[in-house]
Each structure stands twice: as C-alpha cells, then as structure tokens.
Design brief:
There is one protein chain. The two termini are about 55 Å apart. The chain has 12 helices and 49 strands. The strands form 8 sheets. The protein has a 28-stranded parallel β-sheet, with no helix packed on it. About 15% of the residues lie in helices and about 20% in strands. Among the domains are: about 230 residues, Ribonuclease Inhibitor (Leucine-rich repeat, LRR (right-handed beta-alpha superhelix), Alpha-Beta Horseshoe); about 50 residues. The protein is α/β, with parallel strands linked by helices. Belongs to the RLP family. It is found in: Cell membrane. Keywords: Cell membrane, Glycoprotein, Leucine-rich repeat, Membrane, Repeat, Signal, Transmembrane, Transmembrane helix.
C-alpha cells in the first residue's frame, strides 16, 4: 500500500519507481497534479495491483499506458477524474478498454474512440457534473452488454427539461440484460421522470436502490415491480409513498425490503408476508402505520434476521397472541415508539428467550410494564445492545441468578423507568464487556458500588436523576482510560473525587449534588475534557482554587454555588469556551476585559459534538446535552443547536465596575446575561458589533446614560432587558426594537418614549433645577428664634418622625418599584456582611479541612 498525496505543481513522475513494489495492491496518487508519466509502460508491471486512486490530477493523453486494461488482471477499482472536454481516442481512459472485472469511478468524462464500458462489469457515475452528460456517455453505457452494477445516484435525473432529455437518452438501459444492481438514489425522481419507464425491462435486476427521491404511489410506472421478478433487494426509503407499492407481494425472491421514512398510512397486511418467504430484512420504520400487527405473521419466515418497525406511533404490536413459534433467529429488533403488547399487560416479548443470535434489541417508549427478567441480561440469549428506555419497568435491578452465567451486553440503557433500590455491590463483575450504561431517571438509592472500577471497557456512565448518596468511587475518576462521559448529576453525592489519568474523559456532569470540597482535576492528564458542569452544589471559596486551566474546555457551568472573590483572568486562557455560566454566586470585582481572548466567541467555531466511539448508530441514547439559561428561561441544548450555541451568564452576583468595551468584540456570542449585579457606567456602543446576539439582559444594575442607538442594528436580538437601572433619554424605538414592550425598560425613571407612557417633552421642556435655597438674613434670624421654642421643637420632631415613617411605609405599600429597590439595598447589605464573614472564616475552615490536605 502506497500513499503519495499533496505534491504541488504539475509534474511527470518516472513510473519505474513503482517497479520495486511488485506485490503492491493499493496505490493512492490523488491530489498530485500529475500530468503524465516518464516511462509509463513500467506501470504495466504492477500485476498485483487491485485498487488505484488517481482522482484530482491533470492527466493528459499520455496519462495511462495502453497496456493497462490487459496487463493488470488483478485490478478491481480505478478512481479517476478527467477534466478535459471533447477528448480524443488517445484519452487516458482508453487504456482501460481491455479491463473486465473493474469498478470505474469517474468525475467527468467524454470518451471517444473505444467502447469504454464494453467489458466492464461495474461502473460508478455517482455525483457527476451534470453539464458533462452527453449522448456520448449514454451511448457508451448502452453498449455495456456485460455490465452488472451501475451507480447513478445524485445526478438529478428527475429535475428540469434538460436533465429529462438526458434520462430519455438512457432509456436504452432496458437493453442491459446482464444488469443485476442499479442505484438511482438521490435523483429527485417523480411521476414525470422518463427514466423510470425503462426500469421494467431489467428482467435480471436483483438489487434496486430508489431511496431519497420524490416517488409517490401514483408516480410508479404501472406493473414496475411485477416485471422485476428476480429482485432480491428493494430500497425505497425517504420517498412520498402513502401505501405499500403494488406488486410487492409477488416478489418471492425478495430478501431485503426498506420502505422507511415514507408516509404510509395503512395496515400491514399478512398476505404480503405469506409470499415473501425469502425475506431476511424488513425495515418499515418512520411511517404512519396504524392498527394491530401480530408477530405471528412472521412465524414462517425462517430467513428473517432483522425487523425494524420503529417510530410508527399508532401501531399496536402484539408478540404474545395468538400463540406462535418463531422459525427465525433475529439479530436485530427495533420496535421503538410502537404500542407493545397492550392486550397482554405490556410485557416484554417472551419470544426473545428463543433468539440466540440477538445483537440489538431496542424497545424504547413502548409502554412496557413489570420487571426486567434476569434472563434478558445474563444468559447466552442476551443481546449485545439492549435499550428499554422510557417505559414503566419497576422493581430492583436484577442480580445474576447463577455465578457461572455470562452476559454479552456491551450497551445497556434502562433510563427513564421506575427501577428502585440499591445496585448490586458486585455489579461491575456482571458486565465485563459493557461499553455504555445508562440508568438515569430512575429511583436508585444507596452508594455507587466500588465494583464499577472493574468495568474496564466502560466508555459512558449515566446515573443521573436518582437518589444516590455517598462518594464517587475513586476507580471512576482515576486510571480509567476509556471513560469518555461521566454523568452523575441530580443525586445526593457529596464526596468530590480526584480526576487524573482520564485520557478520554470529555463530558463531566456533576451538577445538582451536595459537593462542598473543591474539585481536583489534573489538567495535564485530562486533556480531552470539553464539558464541565458543577452547577447547583455547595462549593465554597475563591474560584481560582476550584478551577484549573483546561485549554480544551468548551462548556464551563458553575451556576448556583457559593464562590466569591473576583473572576480570575486565567479563565481567559480557555480560548475554546462556547458557554460560560457563573451565575447565582457571590462573585465580586469587575468583569475581566480579557474575555475577548476567547476565540470561539469572536470567530465562528462549531462545537464538535462528542459521540461514543463504540456505538455511533444509537447516538440518541448518548447524546450530549447542556442546560443553559437564555431568553429568560432554562433551555436544554443538544444536537445541532448545541454545536452553534455560545453564551455568557454572569447574573446574580455582586460584580461592580463598568461593562468592558471589549465584550463588543464577541461577534459570535448568542446570549449575554449580566443582570442583577452592581455594574455602573454606560452601555458600551461596541455592543453594536454583537452581530449574532439573540438575548441581552442588563437589568437590575446601576447603569446610566442613554441606550445606544446603534444596538437597534442587532438583527437577531429577540430578548432584551435594561429594566431597573438609572438610564435616561429617549428609547431607540425603531426596526425590530418595536417588538420589545415596556417590561424591557421599567424601573428607569428618566427613560421616555414608546413603549413607555412617559412623554419625552416633559424632560426636554423642564426648567433647570435650582442648585440651592437662598433665604434672606432676616428670615434666617426669625427662623432661628422660633426653633428655640420648646413647643416648636417637639412638634417639629413629631412631624419629622411621622413624615419619615410614613414616607417609607406608604411607598412600600403603593409602589412595587420602590419595594424592589428597598429590598435590594437591604439584600446588598446582608450579602456584603456575608461575604466579609466568609472571607474571614473560610481560611480557618480550609486550614482544618481539605486545603490543608
């Protein structure tokens, strides 16, 4: 095997250099700008060559020696792109005219001078430049009398008139009597596509791939399937079928049938499966089938190995009645989101105990009830992949019934049920091969067994949303090289472990527990960590003591703890952060101006969602999620939204100082929340550069001045609040800012204009306030004399006391705004006293507790 890619500039290598590799089987010379060869005949000596990649070179008429087609008997596949148009008979492709069992993959071609496809058995023309299609190509295909495999996917054969004329030119394909496999997927074929009319003549066709077109039942040519009696594989997923295709039941040789992702709204007739006795794979998922389906209709399909009826939400599947005995041995069963065994108390299918080749069993959200049978987990019929998520299963987690029992499980998901009690202390010994374990959203109690340490293959562990207590076993946080996700959130755990030598740890979620001691992470040995969530715990102290520098971190959430002190500037060294949540703590000081060092907030950077390396096919079970507050609500982000979400939340702290103008550099930021602090100064005009901002909350601060008119150009801003500040002037009420109501501006007594009722003319025409009162000298003497009288003095005290008392009480009763300001001042005093107390007492506590250790 030889790779030689990436050479710059057109060149002509000497072909004799390859004669030293007589046993060479794979040769990759793509992307090299090769224009031809010196001594090209030397290539004909590579008689063991099986696969040759010449894509994206600059081959001319001397590109390949003419002997190749006859001299290389082992050659099975050639990948080549020819950019010249109107090529002559000396085209480099003519060198392959003598080849036979060759899979030819081309990008653009117009061969002349030889029947290029005459001897070929496989031709791949997928994803061609449609402008290169011509009658020459069609004629060449029509002469390929030995052709057995033809790939025409992604060529838009069903589009506009010009392409229809090309598909008409391909009607001669019906004469390719040797054709056994035809792939015309992703072509937008529909009722008006002339290409479909020629398919009925392919009498020997065994495999037909029509998936992801625009086919309807009315658009299928009449009798199409009736004429394809030799068909063994039929793929029609991703179309617009509303019923089962006519003639389907006559395909007695059919082995694989895929009608998934259509709009079929009918019953599944048993008559169809009476005739399809050769069926091995049946995929009818993601349709709209309804009614009742009894599994007994599959009883006599002895070749059946795969059944997928998932995501037919109105389909009732009954595996228990009438009584039947399966003649098949399944390796794949997926009934997700069907109604399973409604008449039989929603039991887990009993026929599974007779299936010895099971690889995957997925029964997600099927309304199952009862307990999990130990035989489903532990004996030799247990599958490798078992998912029972989102049902009503109860009881304790089953223990291994016999010591010598074995399990093949590598994937187990029993989340979102009502499994209760403590986990078996030796659970780690039960599943030596387990890669994925999800027991979240159950009612598990007790401690996490230390035997989890012996699950050496474990990659993902999710025990969140239970009632687990105690410490995290050290074996889950040290020397576990395969663990990539640890999700223990929303339990009652209190012992914070030390994380070290976790080479693949990417997702660490411990939020919603009772942790008090600082997390200890060895940053040098946890290099892959990209998500850290310690929110809603009882972590106490200065933030730098808890937060090592993790340069690859993308998500940092420390919301709802008891951190105080300043936000460390070292945080700015985590330049790949996408979301930062430090809200609802006791942080003080100013906002670091270095936040513009975080590049993912300045330049568009897609967060690569971390997926388990062992089970890409069931990504939903292990989908990475984050909880982040934006637009006034807590949202869960996953999948595509997670990839592009960016945000900063520093709300509900005691931050002071001005908002750094550098925040205006964060052009890719989607959410910014600085509310409920003590920030002063003006709203920076640089905020006009926050082009992607969707949510901006600056409420409950001490900001002053005008609202910058420039921020009305933030076209994506849908949530905006500057309520309860000291802002003044006219509200910039234009563009999409007219969608924000008065709740976005209340609590600013000197703001005016719509949507507030305050008229700006009242401020603009108001005379300047006097700087002081000027009393004449005589009046001052008279006032002093009167105030010496005892009666006046006591009367004055009583009146001042009454005015002072009711001057506070009446506004508190009548004005919600006054109450909020009053309570906020009192709360601020309490928090300052608390912070002073914590600063005084924490060093003493730490010296006797974990800091000393």
């Amino acid at each position: 095997m030889v790779y030689a890619t990436g050479v710059v500039g057109k060149w002509y290598p000497n072909a004799t250099i390859f004669t030293h590799f007589q046993h060479l089987q794979f040769l990759d010379l793509s992307y090299n700008d090769i224009g031809g060869w010196i001594m090209p005949q030397a290539l004909c000596q590579l008689r063991n060559l099986k696969e040759w990649d010449l894509m994206w070179n600059d081959l001319d008429h001397d590109g390949l020696p003419g002997c190749l087609g006859r001299a290389l008997p082992s050659l099975e596949a050639v990948y080549v792109s020819i950019m010249q148009r109107n090529m002559s008979s000396s085209s480099p492709l003519t060198a392959l005219c003598g080849a036979r069992n060759l899979s030819l993959h081309l990008y653009v071609m117009e061969p002349r001078g030889c029947p290029l496809f005459h001897n070929l058995e496989s031709v791949d023309l997928a994803d061609l430049d449609l402008n290169a299609w011509s009658p020459v190509v069609s004629n060449a295909l029509c002469q390929a009398t030995n052709l057995k495999e033809l790939y025409l996917s992604e060529n838009n054969l069903g589009d506009d008139d010009d392409i229809r004329s090309n598909s008409k030119a391909l009607l001669c394909l019906r004469n390719l009597t040797s054709l056994e496999m035809l792939d015309v997927s992703y072509n937008n074929l529909n009722a008006s596509s002339a290409f479909l009319k020629g398919l009925g003549g392919l009498k020997n066709l065994k495999e037909l791939d029509l998936h992801d077109n625009s086919l309807t039942n009315e658009g299928l040519p009449s009798g199409l399937l009736n004429n394809l009696s030799s068909l063994e594989v039929l793929g029609m997923s991703g179309n617009k079928l509303t019923s089962l295709p006519t003639g389907l039941y006559q395909l007695r040789n059919l082995q694989e049938l895929d009608l998934s992702y259509n709009q079929i709204t009918s019953n599944i007739a048993s008559l169809i499966f009476d005739n399809l006795t050769s069926l091995e794979s049946l995929v009818l998922s993601n349709n709209q089938f309804f009614g009742e389906l009894s599994f007994s209709i599959f009883a006599n399909l002895s070749q059946l190995t795969e059944i997928d009826l998932s995501n037919n939400y109105n389909l009732d599947v009954d595996t228990e009645s009438p009584s039947w005995i399966p003649s098949f041995q399944l390796n794949y069963l997926n009934l997700d989101n069907c109604n399973l065994n409604r008449k039989s108390h929603n039991v887990i299918p009993n026929f599974l105990s007779t299936q010895y080749n099971l690889r995957v069993v997925s029964l997600v959200h099927t309304s199952l009830q009862g307990i999990i049978s130990p035989s489903l987990l532990y004996n030799n019929t247990s599958p490798k992949h078992l998912s029972l998520r989102g049902n009503h299963l109860v009881g304790q987690f089953p223990k291994m019934p016999f010591q010598n029992e074995t399990t093949r499980l590598t994937f187990l998901d029993i989340s979102d049920n009502q499994i209760e009690g403590q986990l078996p202390t030796n659970i780690g010994d039960f599943f030596p091969s387990l890669h994925f374990l999800n027991m979240s959203m159950n009612e598990l109690e007790g401690k996490i067994p230390s035997s989890f340490n012996r699950m050496w293959q474990l990659g993902v562990l999710d025990l969140s949303n239970n009632f687990l207590i105690g410490e995290v076993p050290s074996g889950l946080s040290q020397n576990k090289t395969l663990l990539s996700q640890i999700i223990l959130s929303n339990n009652k755990l209190h012992g914070m472990p030390i994380f070290t030598k976790m080479d693949r740890l990417a997702n660490l979620r411990l939020e919603g527990n009772c942790f008090t001691k600082p997390i200890i992470i060895n940053a040098s040995s946890v290099r892959s960590l990209f998500m850290l969530d310690l929110s809603e715990n009882y972590l106490l102290g200065y933030l730098p003591n808890h937060l090592p520098i993790l340069p690859n971190l993308r998500v940092l959430h420390l919301r709802g703890n008891h951190f105080f002190g300043q936000i460390p500037e070292s945080l700015c060294q985590m330049t790949k952060l996408h979301t930062l949540d430090l809200s609802n703590n006791h942080l003080s000081g100013s906002i670091p101006s270095c936040l513009n060092s975080i590049t993912s907030w300045k330049k568009k950077s897609e967060l690569q969602e971390f997926l388990p390396y062992f089970d890409q096919g069931f990504r939903r079970s292990s989908e990475v999620k984050i909880n982040f507050a934006t637009k006034g609500h807590m949202h869960t982000y996953k999948g595509e939204p997670l990839r592009y979400m960016t945000g900063i939340d520093l709300s509900k702290n005691q931050l002071t100082g001005q908002i750094p103008i550098e925040i205006g550099d964060l052009r890719e930021l989607h959410s910014l929340n600085l509310s409920n602090n003590f920030l002063v100064g003006h709203i920076p005009e640089s905020f006009q550069n926050l082009e992607q901002l969707e949510s901006l909350d600056l409420s409950h601060n001490k900001l002053e001045g005008r609202i910058p008119h420039q921020i009305t150009k933030l076209n994506f801003l849908s949530t905006f609040s500057v309520a309860f500040n000291n802002l003044s002037g006219r509200i910039p009420y234009e563009d999409h800012f007219i969608t924000f109501d008065n709740n976005s501006y209340i609590g600013n007594d000197e703001l005016c204009g719509p949507p507030l009722q305050m008229n700006c003319s009242l401020f603009e025409n108001q005379p300047p306030r006097p700087k002081g009162n000027d009393f004449g000298g005589g009046k001052k003497k008279l006032l002093a004399k009167v105030m010496d009288e005892d009666l006046f003095f006591y009367s004055y005290v009583a009146i001042c006391y009454a005015l002072g008392f009711w001057g506070v009480i009446i506004p508190l009763i009548l004005s919600k705004n006054w109450r909020r300001k009053y309570y906020r001042i009192i709360n601020g005093c309490i928090e300052r006293c608390r912070e002073w107390f914590l600063r005084l007492i924490v060093p003493v506590v730490h010296s006797f507790d974990f800091l000393g250790a």
